[in-house]
Amino acid sequence: MSISALHSGINGINQGLSNMRHNASSIAQAVNNGIGNRPVEHSTEVTSALVNLKLDTLQIQASAKVVETVHEIIGSLLDVTA
User: Fold this and answer.
1) Using CA of residue 46, residue 48, residue 49, residue 55, what is the dihedral sign?
2) Which range has the worst mean pLDDT, 26-30, 33-37, 72-76?
3) Is residue 43 within 8 Å of residue 14, measured between CB atoms?
4) Rounded to the nearest 5°, which phi and psi values hold at 14?
5) At what angle do helices 43-81 and 4-33 cross, to 10 degrees?
6) What is the pLDDT of residues 59-74, one digit of tens each?
């Protein structure tokens, strides 16, 4: 049995985590390049990565809600058929 909503939710979580890793890496690289007396370069890139981290968080939360809703619906269906 395939449940497309469940797959969509899980894919959304995985994509959000992948994007989050990428953005966190960008921030870490910028910070590492700015260690010492040198200022952090490419501050617009860091700002974009920070904003994207928040968007990734929201994507993961929304996708988790989809998975939770599918879980509840399946539970309700099983209760009805039992």
Assistant:
1) positive
2) 33-37
3) no
4) -60, -40
5) 160
6) 999 999 999 999 999 8
